[in-house]
Each structure stands twice: as structure tokens, then as C-alpha cells.
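Summary for the steering committee. One of the milestones for this cycle was to obtain a three-dimensional model of the protein with fructose -6-phosphate bound, which we needed before selecting residues for the alanine scan. The sequence and ligand used are listed below.
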Amino acid sequence: MCGIVGYIGNKNCVPILINGLKRLEYRGYDSAGIGIIENGNSSIIKNKGKVSALEERIHNMNLHAGLGIGHTRWATHGIPNEINAHPHSNSNNTLFLIHNGIIENYQTIKTGLKKLGYHFTSETDSEVLVHLIDSFLVKGYSLCKAVQLALNEVEGTYGIAVIYREEPDKIVVARKGSPLVVGLGENENFIASDVSAILAHTKQVVYLDDGELAVVSKDNFTVKTISDKEIEKEVHEISMSLEEIDKGGFPHFMLKEIMEQPESVRNSMRGRLLIDEGTSKLGGLTEVVDRLVNSKRILISACGTSWHAGLVGEYMLEHIARIPTEVEYASEFRYRNPIIDKDDTVFLISQSGETADTLAALREAKNRGALVLGICNVVGSTIARESTAGVYIHAGPEIGVASTKAFTSQLVVLSLITLLIARKKSLSAPEGREIVKELQALPDKISEILKLNDKIEELANEFKDANNFLYLGRGYNFPVALEGALKLKEISYIHAEGYPAAEMKHGPIALIDENMPVVFIAPKDSTYDKIISNIEEVRARGGKIIAIADDGDGEIDRIVDHVIKIPRTIEMLSPILNSIPLQLLAYHIAVKKGLNVDQPRNLAKSVTVE
Ligand code: F6R
């Protein structure tokens, strides 16, 4: 969602804020702004559009300040325009605020403030916060106290940063439901919604937890609760490097991240395979492994691509580890009054570790006594921290909004978890060793698939003008069909649907004609014969068929229009390989349509609102 950055120190904050915002742009990108204070002067500059538009606007302004905050917005209330962009300010332009989240009771607060004579300029929920804080400042409270008092009246979620001309020695930040970190430097400090914004300046960070507030000056910081209880915080060292969050010569982050998969998949397994024993070792689960293995049931909750990974996990856990498993959208789970008890294990899968619905599902499951385990990419993220235990996927920073390498790494980690449980239950050592061998072979096989990039680009050229796409798969590859369709629709804006191939005849078959490309995921597995019958059904109705098939499948060529042949692996791991050509297909179609693949319209990388 929105990105937040702030600086206090002796340097000019303007380039620091702009560069930080550029790093955060993947979180939200419909408008951006900065607010700065220096020598009793305070100014806000904001713009509709990208951070580059803001940068251009301030280029000749010769701005200089040691204190400032910046924001990149993903609209929730009010259209993307200059007025709705952050920072928001009080009426005399002395108090600036940036906000990520949603203030649910903003209408009630607004009505009360209007009665006090406050005037609102924007349509946002965030603007009420700045006036509410102001209403306490005018009563003589300090900035910190005014923020605390204001937040006591607020319902909803927030990560906020506030600066005030009358107290120019501090930034006050607070969080509830939206991430915030304080970055520590020498005679300078930083605040951000995401470490990538400040990584160029410091690797020492303090993560705020929900209900906490920090007062950050250039050489100190203090953390307390909103209700004013002082808190000692641990300082964390970030291991991520700046190079890891750059494009590294690729035209887009998405392509870089697709191409990184041999390495990211290898990193997800590094040090975690016990070759001789035919099992896995997951340090993050050591303390809870008995409880996990003896769970009566596993629930997996997630959103979007992570939910698709969960669906593959369901096949793995039931098929190989023989534990009843259910997968549910986190947004449904949290409001459904789910039946969960202490014999259940609930896995929360989230690349960002900040998705609001997934976090709420975690808290619901924890409340009901289940073992709560996180599968996250972002180290130190809220879901990772609030889980009882968990496994990091170690895919490295994923900046492109469409999730690619995180998906394949989530699948690797799910297969490691499956292996761990299965070997403690009924899977034999030779069977375990077979899975380990196939896992080890994945990076090379992925490299082979990536060599098909040019061929897939040609295919994209042929299909870029299609208005609809159907993706069909069975068994383990039904979720891959869903994921292929999601990738295409989110970056190319082509309507695409994923279905279990057999379901096609219960409705979607009516859509098939010569204008409908149908992508079949057709590895030579236990469902192969059935999927060939489904391909014939589409062929009989004139649909254009693209198949993802195994190397060495000589039969399929004669019944499809195009085939992408990829190396074979065992059924349980085939989604990892099959998803990669679909990522490339979506990528090339979007590029050929001239679209912004890394920042597709209306989307945000980290969905911190409900
Ligand atoms: C799709 C995509 C989204 C995310 C979803 C969950 O490419 O990126 O569907 O998968 O918003 O995000 P995380 O995994 O961060 O919880």
C-alpha cells in the first residue's frame, strides 16, 4: 500500500526522501509528496502520478531541510490527485502528517472537528488525523502527547509519521496494522514503512509493533505505547544489500525476479536438505515440530498468489504427509467464525508478511489456541514476528508487484514442510531421498526453462491482442492454472480465468471459439490422459491451444497449436516448473501491450488494508 519515509539529521533530506520514495513506489504509486521543515519554514510539495513527476517538479526549487517526511500513495478514499496526496497539513501549514492504512471512523471524527471550525480540503480519511492532532496541540499539549490523544480516538489501521514546525527536533511515528521501522544512523535517523527505503543509509533498524509510538530525533529515539508506557526495543541488523533491491540490468523487476528463480529456489533449500536421511531440517520449526506432526488438521490461510501456493500445499500435505488440509482466503477465514482448536496447525503464507487479512487470520487462529506458523519472505515482517514459529522462504526482495519468485519459493518451502512431516509419519527413507533428489535438481531445470524465453516472447506476440484467456490444469496443476490466469490479468489487463480442466464442461466450455486461447498445463502425471481428453474437447470447438508439457512428450504436439516443453519432475514439484513459462507469457504479453509491468494499475505490493 502507501509508502512512508522520513529523515532527521544534518544532511539535506530532500534527495533522501525522493530516493526513499522511489524504492517504495512498488507499494503504491498514484501520487507522491514530501513535507519539509527548516529554520521556521515549512513546505509541502505534492503531485499526482509517479515519484519521478514529483522529482521533476522540485528539481529547480533548490529545497534544503534537515527534517522531512515523504509519502507515495495508493488511493483508498478519494481519487488520486494533488489534493488527496500526502502529506496533509493543518490550516496554518505547521503540522504535516503522512498515513498508511484506513481510519474507519473518519466520518464521525470529521463531523466533530467541523463543529470545532476545522476546514477539510481533501476527500481522504487521513486528513482527519492531522486536524485531530492539531486540536490537541492548540490546547497546549506537546506533539507526542497530541498524537497519543488523537490516536486514542481513532478506529482502523495506521502507520503515521508527523512533523511540527514548533517542535522541529523530532519526527513522531506510530503504528497499528501498518508496518513502520526506525533506521538508526550517526547524528541522523530515519523512519520508513519498509527497510528498502532507508537501506542506502543504514542497516540498523528497530521495528515498531502495533500500539507503539516512537519519538525520533537526530541522535536519539524513544518508544512507548500509545497509552504512554515506555518500551525497550531491540535493534536489528538488516542482512539485505542494496544491490539486491536494484534491477541489475533487467528492463523490469518482474523479469529480473523471474530470471532469478534458479538462485531463489536454491536459497529456499539451502542448508535445509538432509540427503542421506531423505528429509528436511527447518530450524524455525524445531521447537514445534512434534505439535505440527501430530496436528489433527492443517489449515492454510493466505491471499492472492500466496493462496495459490497454499492450494498446492494442500495437495502436497494430503497426498504425501497424509494430514487433512484445508485452504482458505484469509479475508473469508477471519470473518467466518472458523472452527479451530489447539490440535490444529494454521499456516499463514505471505510474501510481504504485512497483508492485513492474513495478519487478521493469524490473530484469529492464535486466539483460538491453534499452532500458528508463518511462511514469509520479508524478514522481520509483522506476520513473521507474530507467528509462534515459521519458515522464511529466503527468495530475496521481491519488488515487481506481480509475485513470481516468491511463489516458487513458497512451493519449495511447502514441499520441505511436507517432507519433514511425511518422514516422521509414513514416508520411507528411499521415497524421501527421491523427493530430495528432485528438489536438488530444480534450479538446473528452471535454468533450462528460462532458455525458452525467446520462444515464449514469440507466443506473446501472437496472443497479445486476445481479449480473454482460459487456463486449465488438474490435480497439483489446477492451482497453477489459477496462478497463470492471475499473472496475466494483473499485468496485461486481459480477462483470464483459471479452472480445474474437468470443470470446463460445467460452464466455461460455452466460451470456447476460435478467438479463445486456452492454456493447458499438461505434464505426464497421473492426470495426463484426462487432460488430453479435455484438450480434445477444446480442439473440437476451435479453441486455440497452448500446452505446457513435459520434454519427451511426443503425443501432445499433434493436438495443440503451440507447446512449450519443459523438463520433467515428480508430480508434487511440477507446479514449481510449470508456473515459470506462465510467468514469462504474462510478462511478455504485458510488455508488448506497452504496459507498466512492475506497477500495474490499481495494484499494490503489500496490501495493508482490508
Ligand atoms: C499477485 C500478488 C498478490 C499477492 C497478495 C498477497 O501477483 O502479488 O495477489 O500474492 O496480495 O500478498 P502477500 O503474499 O504479501 O501476503
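Key point for the committee: The chain is about 35% helix and 25% strand.
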